[in-house]
Amino acid sequence: YLRNAPTQKALQKESERLVEEIHYFDVLRSDRSISSNGLEARTPFLDKAFVKYYLSIPAELKTFDGVNRLEKYLLRNAFAGQGLLPDDVLWRRKCAFSDGVSSQKNSWHRIIQSFVDKKISDEEFQRESAKLNHCTPQLKESYYYRKVFTNFFGNNEQLIPHFWMPQWTDVDVLDPSARELKDYQE
To answer: From CA 128, how far away is CA 136, in angstroms rounded?
Structure first.
């Protein structure tokens, strides 16, 4: 979604916000999920010096169009010609995170939705989600996660300030999955 930033200043500001809030969403989720299974996640591109350096790069050098310049162009270009990654891997189009663990025909995103639809009735979702004032679930899937969270951790929903959602989409997106974005459906 970053390629849809209306200005370079907006791109820079959103990049900084994502780093500032990363402990609420992606990194926290991966750390907890992985470590609960006795494994350890490595996030080399979250090295503080690297992040500080990357954020200091002018936004105009980080812009991309998804065709001539792909996401993470600067990082990809740094590895180009080094023989560390095959070019077809280095320059392939970015896919949604869940695509790495499922097929594109039946994505992990769709598998979860199907599972949740069997667990949560429309009536329960409407009735119970309306009672939740902070981060009110807009979809059955997010309501299901909230229900599981509350079961294990009680009413501590204030731990996150808001739902993470992509900006600058051409429609009102209720689901944070990249699979719902037009860029990943092309």
So the answer is: 10
